Amino acid sequence: MEFIALLLFVFWLFTTALRFNMLASQGHFTYTQIFMGNARWYQSPRMIILIIALALLVYFGTLHVIYLAGAITAGLMLLLFGRNLLHHWGNQTITLINCVVCVLVLGGALVMLHRL
User: Fold this and answer.
1) 43 falls in which pLDDT band (50, 70, 90)?
2) Is the pTM of this model over 0.85?
3) Which long-range contacts (CB under 8 A, 24 or more apart) does 25-29 make?
4) Calpha distance 68→56 (Å, rounded)
5) What is the rounded CA–CA span in Å between residue 6 and residue 112?
6) Which pLDDT band holds residue 88 (cuts at 50, 70, 90)?
7) In degrees, to the nearest 5, what angle opens at C-alpha 64 toward C-alphas 61 and 70?
8) Which residues lie below 8 Å from residue 99, measured CB to CB, with a gap of 6+?
9) Is there a contact between 71 and 112 (Cβ–Cβ < 8 Å)?
């Protein structure tokens, strides 16, 4: 089950990164459009996949796998947010705040991985 949870989580991460690239290159976007989509959260297939993946990961996964998934997600999002900062795409203040949050999450996840 842990493998299925990781597969679903990686699939969600991949589809989110693709949507991030597609919308960010257009110039005008909101992060709500990227992560949630235009539909309500319970009508979006990507959000349902994320909820199922996180529920399976928390229930069946080890702490090491959970922190590793968090670190990988924070690292990828940091790269995507950093690219938006460099190209001046989207709201720069919100992008900078997102970068800081990603750095904090990445640092915390790596510290916890080191302690395990």
Assistant:
1) confident
2) no
3) 25/89, 27/89, 27/90, 28/90, 29/89, 29/90
4) 15
5) 19
6) confident
7) 85
8) 78, 81, 82, 85
9) no
Q: CA Rg, the chain, in Å?
A: 15
The single residue listed with the structure tokens 């947010």 is: 81
Number of H helices, E strands in the chain: 5, 0
The position carrying tokens 């302690």 is 115
Question: For the chain, how are helix, strand and coil distributed in percent, rounded to 5?
Answer: 85, 0, 15
Find where tokens 């991949």 sit: 14
Tokens of 60: 């069946």
What per-residue confidence (pLDDT) applies to 84? Answer: 86
pLDDT, tens digit (0-9, with 9 covering 90-100), for 67-81:
999 999 999 999 988
